[in-house]
Amino acid sequence: GVQMVVAAMHAHTGLVSQSALNLVKMASYNCAVLVWLGYFLMPEPARRPIPEPEAPQVEGWNQVLSQLLQR
């Protein structure tokens, strides 16, 4: 996205030097790398076990589903 903006600015104005545009592109790339590095280094959240449904509840679901499929 940054490269498209930089290319549009350069094509539209032509006033900004190519070296300044290169600096903007490099800075945006470095910021993106730092963001990904931050996500990589963050600790993974603790996982909670998912409670299993009770057997009578599952049987009720199966009965309703069977009735719907028989229609």
Description:
There is one protein chain. The protein has 71 residues and is an all-alpha fold. It has 3 helices and no strands. The longest helix has 24 residues, at 18-41. The protein starts with a helix and ends with a helix. 0% of the residues are buried.
Summarize the structure.
This protein has 71 residues and is mainly α. 72% of the residues lie in helices and 0% in strands. Helix 1 (2-12) runs antiparallel to helix 2 (18-41).
Keywords:
71 residues; single chain; mainly alpha
List the helices and strands and how they pair.
Layout: H1 2-12, H2 18-41, H3 55-70
Helix pairs in contact: 1-2
Question: Structural class given helices, strands, pairing?
Answer: mainly alpha
- Number of distinct helices: 3
Beta strand %: under 5%
Coarse shape: elongated
